[in-house]
């Protein structure tokens, strides 16, 4: 993990622009440099563009303000401040001066320096990206290695993605001045953003996919997941709705009906499973107690919009979801995905509060969910209104832990091209003991392609795992990172009680993986793991910190 990337010294002329490569691990920061000498004139114009792939090194970089994404509304520019909406800078440079771009440039691999000032030679020294509170600098304390080098590479790429997408806290206000805005940004929590390059916002509906990567790779005391949870819990309306992607500087005081820039009951609901995972992996009961009133209020809000049998009645004004970024008729369907998620919320609230009423409610609603959506053979339909098979809802059910104890219905498996949802299938396959099929799902998508030496983009996990070369797609998206999935299912160490006071060793490797080793961070120290195959048996050696009990379970066979 190369957090301190090299600075570059280059000579730029009108005839010879220069491209520098910060490497496939990428970097985010404030571009800064010194002009050592300027031969042929007293001042020159230096133009710098930024990109994550050579295809993006056009006159304005790989995107610019006029092409900004608008799915958060017509008045919301992405990426969110303080990230620059343009991917280029123009400097009027003089010899002996130091320069720094006023805004963070998001995620970068390449920078191209050029000048249209004829007859000058600009000697640029120490051209760098200064990571001043732009992304995490904490190094991973967990580790993973196995006999399949491709999985090792994806684990490292996933962890690097999570570093780039973790935003440090800002203790003091930050003044942002440029041609199109002049604002003062307030203090923020540290938080996990949904993208290092584009949004730079916490997104509640994506945290559950990202969180295992942080728990298996980093010390549980790092502040990013905690800050994201606090940020979401504080941005709650009087009705109980939790905004999906609140601005980092916003701390509560919402009005009734203030649904935020992405009006989504589905995304609001995801906060409950996120907090359940947080408690399990960190044991931070203090933070859980702090947000529990918000979760109870959220659960009451969600229940208030359910029919008598417990199925969710989706209103148009809060109907955006992971499959419908805009309002519309289909977004108000009675969707299996939403009701499966709500059942997980009910079970999660029972765990968090110890109150049986939540579990009883889940049991009460279960027959209605089965009747409305369960086609048979473990498959779920999209909605009551649209009765075709839905692979996202089916995979979600098994990734959350099928309440009926069934394994993933392998005969129906179909690739989902959106990698966030395909990651659900990977989890569900591993959980069902289908390690070979889980590896096939990883192979069939683009997770291994980012490791190919011929790939000139970033070695990070991308939004949807589409191999973007330019545009507004995000090339460091932690919801498609799978380090946590690999540590959990291939390395095979899973907490069974909050804070790792108890765990199980239960690897589910594909047949091609004959050994694995690594370290798993816990609040009490690292669990060191080594295992290897001996015929049909897995022979393990574990070193466990004091205060952690191993729960003896039968090891899944291969």
Written account of the structure:
- The protein has 558 residues and is an alpha+beta fold.
- It is built from twelve helices and 23 strands.
- A four-stranded antiparallel sheet has the order 1-10-4-7, with no helix packed on it. Strands 2-9-5-6 form a four-stranded antiparallel sheet, with no helix packed on it. Strands 11-20-21-22 form a four-stranded antiparallel sheet.
- β13 and β14 form a beta hairpin.
- It is globular, with a radius of gyration of 24 Å.
**Whole-angstrom Rg:** 24 Å
For the largest sheet, list the strands in their spatial order.
Answer: 1-10-4-7
Number of helical stretches of at least 4 residues: 12
Quaternary organisation = single chain
Poorly predicted parts: 554-558
Helix content: 25-40%
Shape field: globular
Keywords summarizing the entry:
558 residues; alpha+beta; 4-stranded antiparallel beta sheet; 12 helices; 21% strand; disordered C terminus
Question: What secondary-structure arrangement, pairings included, does this model have?
Answer:
Layout (H helix, E strand, L loop, with lengths): L7 E5 L5 E4 L5 E2 L1 E10 L4 E8 L36 E6 L4 E3 L6 E2 L1 E5 L6 E10 L12 E4 L2 H17 E2 L6 E5 L2 E5 L5 E2 L11 H14 L6 H11 L30 H5 L1 H12 L2 H20 L31 H18 L2 H18 E3 L2 E2 L10 H9 L19 H13 L3 H10 L38 H9 L1 E5 L4 E4 L9 E8 L2 E10 L2 E7 L5 E3 L7
Parallel strand pairs: 19-23
Antiparallel strand pairs: 1-10, 2-9, 3-8, 4-7, 4-10, 5-6, 5-9, 11-20, 12-15, 13-14, 16-17, 18-19, 20-21, 21-22
Helix pairs in contact: 1-12, 2-3, 2-5, 2-12, 3-5, 3-6, 5-6, 5-7, 6-7, 7-8, 7-9, 9-10, 10-11
